[in-house]
Amino acid sequence: MRRVVFNQKGGVGKTTIVCNLAAIAAARGLRTLVIDLDVQGNATRYLGAPADGEAHIARFFEGTLRFGLGDAGLERCILPTRFENLSIVPASTELEHLAPKLEARQKVHKLRQALDRLHVYDAIFFDTPPALNFYSRAALIAADRVLIPFDCDDFARQALYTLLENIAEIQADHNEALDVEGIVVNQFNAQARLPRELLAALQEEGLPVREPPLAASVKVKESHEAQRPLPHYAPRHKLTAQFEALYDSLRA
Predict the structure, then answer these.
(1) In this structure, are strands 32-36 and 123-127 parallel, antiparallel, or unpaired?
(2) What's the chain look like in SS3?
(3) CA 140, 95, 135: angle at the middle one, nearest 5?
């Protein structure tokens, strides 16, 4: 299973969702890999991996530009984390300057091809930049399923329709098997009127909204700072239970 968490809007919790679902998968015994494709490297930091070491995703992509000159296989870019069964391909600041070269050489399918040869992992999660760029397209092409984080405001709702259209184009042109697994309502305030109304409106439209919505909580920022996903940082917290329930609602 390869799952990408993607939204073109920033600040919707992509990294938090990726790392916590991956931590749950790993804790349940699945050999799990996180691939950090965002130049900001938030998933890399959250899982306590070095951002500027020898192994990172830019090394893999750079290798695809050197045909026949010792291509760096993806397996050489993987690092273990401190958490059992959980590994990561760290991000790198080099991603930014590589993107135009990769676009020009049409390397957007290389990540999928590399993963097709990598049979070590039961679950793979992609963290993506908040833009439909080379790296997010590469992830959408490589993935089986896509989860869309959604924060409850009207601007996010309007952007959601454009996002679904863009994903449909990727499906039509590159990855017919890609399944829109659902919309994850994040940072949800059940006491406020607007979030409740927006959630109800999405459900009435028949959009695939996953249950449960994930509550807003200061524990998220605390777990970021501690570099420990919630199942390890606050295993008995309400939000951790919501992540567990969300994970259980997804197909294996």
Answers:
(1) parallel
(2) CEEEECCCCCCCCHHHHHHHHHHHHHHCCCCEEEEECCCCCHHHHHCCCCCCCCCCHHHHHHHHCCCCCCCCCHHHHCEECCCCCEEEECCCCCHHHHHHHHHHCCCCCHHHHHHHCCCCCCEEEEECCCCCCHHHHHHHHHCCEEEEEEECCHHHHHHHHHHHHHHHHHHHHCCCCCEEEEEEEECECCCCHHHHHHHHHHHHCCCCECCCCCECCHHHHHHHHHCCCHHHHCCCCHHHHHHHHHHHHCCC
(3) 10
pTM score:
0.95
| Residue-wise pLDDT tens digits, 64-98 | 998 654 456 899 999 999 999 999 999 999 999 99
Domains of the chain: 2-249 (3.40.50.300)
